[in-house]
Amino acid sequence: MEQTRKDSRRIEHRQGKYACTFRVNGKEVSVDASPMDRVVDLLRDGLHETGTKISCGIGRCGACSIWVDGRLTSSCLLLAYQVEGKEVTTIEGMGTEERCSIVQEAFMNEGGFQCGYCTPGMIMAAESLLRHTPDPDDEEIREGLSGNICRCTGYSGIIRAVKAAAANLQ
Amino acid sequence: MKQPEYQRRPDAVPKVTGSLKYLTDRFEENMLIGKVLRSEYPHARIKRIDTSAAEALPGVHAVLTHHDVPGLNRFGIVMPDQPVFCEDRVRYTGDAVAAVAAESAESADQALAAVVVEYEPLPVLDSVEKALTPEAEQLHENGNILHEASYTRGDLQQGFAGCTCIVEETYQLPRQMHGYMETEGGVVVPESDGGISVYMATQHGFKDRFQLSRILETPEEKIRIISSPIGGSFGGKDELNLQPYGALLALKTGRPVRVHNTREESIRAGLKRHPMAITMRTGADESGRVLAHETTIYADTGAYATLGPAILEFAVEHASGLYPIPNITTTGVSVFTNNGVAGEFRGFGGNQVTFALEGQMDRLAEKLGMEGTKLRARNMRKPSDTGPLGQGIAPTDGGRMILEDVTTWQQLPLSNAGETAWVKNGRGGAVSMHGGGLGYGRLDPSGGRLALTKEGKLEAAFGFEECGQGIVAVIETVMKGTFSCNEEDIEITIGDTNKVPVSGSTTASRGTSMVWTAVENMKASFRRQLLIEASRVTGTAAADLYLGAGGVHKRGAEPSLFLSYKALAEYVQDGDIETHTSFDFPVTPDEIDSGHYLYSFGGVSAEVEVNLLTGTVRVLDLKQSVSAGPVMYPQGYRGQIEGGGIMALGYTLMEDAVMQEGRYQTENFDTYLMPGVKDLPDNVTVKPREEVMEGDIHGPRGVGEIGTIAVAPAIAEAIYQAIGARPEKLPVSREWVLQQIQQRGLLPWNKPEKIPGG
Ligand code: FES
Ligand code: FES
């Protein structure tokens, strides 16, 4: 008999897991999941890809931002079945310690981070913005980052970084 | 390609690539998941706790209550009054009653749900007023007053007698949440010697070790605290939070245990900024000289003490700020309630009291028909003046310098003035003074260690934590500046009680200043040791050698690099070249409790735009001038002030963790709003004023807090300039703004209503 119950986040869980298969940064992965598991937990706990962070768990802060088939989205609001067969891109797919992306370089140069906890999500948002809007004006930058909260920097350094990255990408 | 303006922080690459492992990212083989059961009631007696059903669940390895605490079942930095697990009474909804460790988060959740706790609800003391009534139930043995503090000088009555102009107001300050993006948590690992390693954020590893040792009844040497990197703290992670539960569960089960608060759990249990009600009566003579200043502070400290007493004393000290007023009486009371626990938060009581003080200055200035900046200049402290408690302090001209900048900025024309009938602009300025270090009468030791490691690195070790503020960048910059070495030559050791010397807490804007002082103390001896050793190894006179990039250099040689640090390290034993320092944070020579010695100053000028139709206040321009000695790491300095400024903008315009009957009305970031990128002013300026007095030996003062202090009063004054109403309550709500607009008939199609009492 299948059991259902609710956890502290009031999400319903079912006993019984299945192999959830999708691609992460170009590599096919298969994780034990119940369809209702959050993608952020699959990434962090299942795959130990902890670059994607968890902060609010309700889609308000953007710390968990990833791309699914190239679209920016909050992985705390995404359930396992929703990424089945999809291409997931995380911060680990953006650049490496040896070769950072232009956006990552700009964040380092312009003071786009302090504690760094919002940074992976912020960079996913910034990369997404610049892919869709290569030469954003101030309003577009603000719009593009409006789903991401940073408590440390006060955003000035982040905006400097996005502007510098946009200029360098030209 | 745009050239970077700044040196990169040493933690830059791991942070932007996501490869940095925070303590909540840790994964251990065989790890269990821990969770804490918090009280259902803000105030209740516990009649019964039954854990048997929870224990019987599959996958559950431990269910702990107060019976399972081997040592002191209490914690608290100043006085241990907060139960690890409540025995017979709960005093706020964050109180812990039980904790479980299970194989998965799901089974841990099930176990929590299966713990039976029977409560008998008690009357909820959800305000300072209620807690102070004679009939109120006593929340602690000594009653409902946590602490009282006061300061008097001169004769208040006489002072007021000489005043031609007196203003009085009561200011209400909200319960701000730290809102660090990484919630509390981490992993505790039991070690083979019976000890534990605690991988959890804190602002003072040794203090956690001490507190845990008391709780676990385990010698401190058996507890290792690994506490950096941290995803933000702002004071909120200085006190213990989940460490006791992780530790007890790990010791009980013999397995690593991960505990990590959800945001909801973090809000419910975590600290907040003290809500305060501050009444000030301030009087000046015709010329604008402030002669008398009376302050009464009521602070809602919540259910337990933590740093409540020190925060109240800080507020009392800073009640007269930068103005050496001859007649002062300040009294403060910090009161226990059944609300969320209030504790350490960036600014430490200074934010609240400065909002009130600067509000008084603006009210006085208006009554006197003077410019606000002029009134401030008339009353500004002189370099040789004593501190606010009459204590001797390091001479400083910071107040005058930052006021000079604010005065200039206040003359700037308003942007888009008069463009639309329903938008009004205004500009306001305010200044602040903020003590660094813990203050007179409090143990405030610091220190550091420099060593040449086996691998040939110049190791700089400090007991400070990296919570984002950039202490690693400060250490790197100071090391490079002192020894002319490269980044690659330096190894920074922090955040591990097994490896670092005692440096004191990473609080009170003391880190930067202490790193600088420590390296100053150690540099001669370290340099000498390295050069003597290099001279011995190479047979070259030490006088011909000097330290530089990559290693020891020789004068006149081409290339000058003579012996790399790595090569030198091969000739010496580990620990051969090592130097230590320990010292105390500088304190006032006068025996005045809690008085500070080193102060920083911050001046703010803000322009706002008030939308008369919606009541929205938008900050367009936020300029800050800061006097805190020389800048060590420019990017970090700027970031602290920019970030602090926006955090304070939130405090002023949107943030309040509202409580009703002892329960948070907010659970998460959907109902607690912090500034987002769209709230960022169009222009944010940071102007460091680096000059110090001649002969000043104290180097840099920290800037972790100063950027948050004078922002609120500056914005409040800007709002007044825009709509003619003075906010005395934060955050300034749209409802209030609209009401003021209505009452004043500011919209062309509204007739002014009679202002009640006006
Ligand atoms: S954790 Fe997903 S949006 Fe905050
Ligand atoms: S850098 Fe800390 S939250 Fe953004």
UniProtKB/TrEMBL annotation, chain A:
<dbReference type="InterPro" id="IPR051452">
    <property type="entry name" value="Diverse_Oxidoreductases"/>
</dbReference>
<dbReference type="GO" id="GO:0016491">
    <property type="term" value="F:oxidoreductase activity"/>
</dbReference>
<keyword id="KW-0560">Oxidoreductase</keyword>
<dbReference type="Pfam" id="PF00111">
    <property type="entry name" value="Fer2"/>
</dbReference>
<keyword id="KW-0408">Iron</keyword>
<dbReference type="InterPro" id="IPR001041">
    <property type="entry name" value="2Fe-2S_ferredoxin-type"/>
</dbReference>
<keyword id="KW-0411">Iron-sulfur</keyword>
<dbReference type="InterPro" id="IPR006058">
    <property type="entry name" value="2Fe2S_fd_BS"/>
</dbReference>
<dbReference type="InterPro" id="IPR012675">
    <property type="entry name" value="Beta-grasp_dom_sf"/>
</dbReference>
<dbReference type="GO" id="GO:0051537">
    <property type="term" value="F:2 iron, 2 sulfur cluster binding"/>
</dbReference>
<dbReference type="InterPro" id="IPR036010">
    <property type="entry name" value="2Fe-2S_ferredoxin-like_sf"/>
</dbReference>
<feature type="domain" description="2Fe-2S ferredoxin-type">
    <location>
        <begin position="18"/>
        <end position="94"/>
    </location>
</feature>
<dbReference type="InterPro" id="IPR036884">
    <property type="entry name" value="2Fe-2S-bd_dom_sf"/>
</dbReference>
<dbReference type="InterPro" id="IPR002888">
    <property type="entry name" value="2Fe-2S-bd"/>
</dbReference>
<dbReference type="GO" id="GO:0046872">
    <property type="term" value="F:metal ion binding"/>
</dbReference>
<protein>
    <submittedName>
        <fullName>Xanthine dehydrogenase molybdenum-binding subunit/carbon-monoxide dehydrogenase small subunit</fullName>
    </submittedName>
</protein>
<keyword id="KW-0479">Metal-binding</keyword>
<keyword id="KW-0001">2Fe-2S</keyword>
<dbReference type="Pfam" id="PF01799">
    <property type="entry name" value="Fer2_2"/>
</dbReference>
TrEMBL record, chain B:
<dbReference type="GO" id="GO:0016491">
    <property type="term" value="F:oxidoreductase activity"/>
</dbReference>
<dbReference type="InterPro" id="IPR016208">
    <property type="entry name" value="Ald_Oxase/xanthine_DH-like"/>
</dbReference>
<dbReference type="Pfam" id="PF02738">
    <property type="entry name" value="MoCoBD_1"/>
</dbReference>
<feature type="domain" description="Aldehyde oxidase/xanthine dehydrogenase a/b hammerhead">
    <location>
        <begin position="17"/>
        <end position="123"/>
    </location>
</feature>
<dbReference type="InterPro" id="IPR000674">
    <property type="entry name" value="Ald_Oxase/Xan_DH_a/b"/>
</dbReference>
<dbReference type="InterPro" id="IPR008274">
    <property type="entry name" value="AldOxase/xan_DH_MoCoBD1"/>
</dbReference>
<dbReference type="InterPro" id="IPR017609">
    <property type="entry name" value="Xanthine_dehydrogenase_dsu"/>
</dbReference>
<dbReference type="GO" id="GO:0005506">
    <property type="term" value="F:iron ion binding"/>
</dbReference>
<dbReference type="Pfam" id="PF01315">
    <property type="entry name" value="Ald_Xan_dh_C"/>
</dbReference>
<protein>
    <submittedName>
        <fullName>Xanthine dehydrogenase, molybdenum binding subunit apoprotein</fullName>
    </submittedName>
</protein>
<dbReference type="InterPro" id="IPR046867">
    <property type="entry name" value="AldOxase/xan_DH_MoCoBD2"/>
</dbReference>
<dbReference type="Pfam" id="PF20256">
    <property type="entry name" value="MoCoBD_2"/>
</dbReference>
<dbReference type="InterPro" id="IPR037165">
    <property type="entry name" value="AldOxase/xan_DH_Mopterin-bd_sf"/>
</dbReference>
<dbReference type="InterPro" id="IPR036856">
    <property type="entry name" value="Ald_Oxase/Xan_DH_a/b_sf"/>
</dbReference>
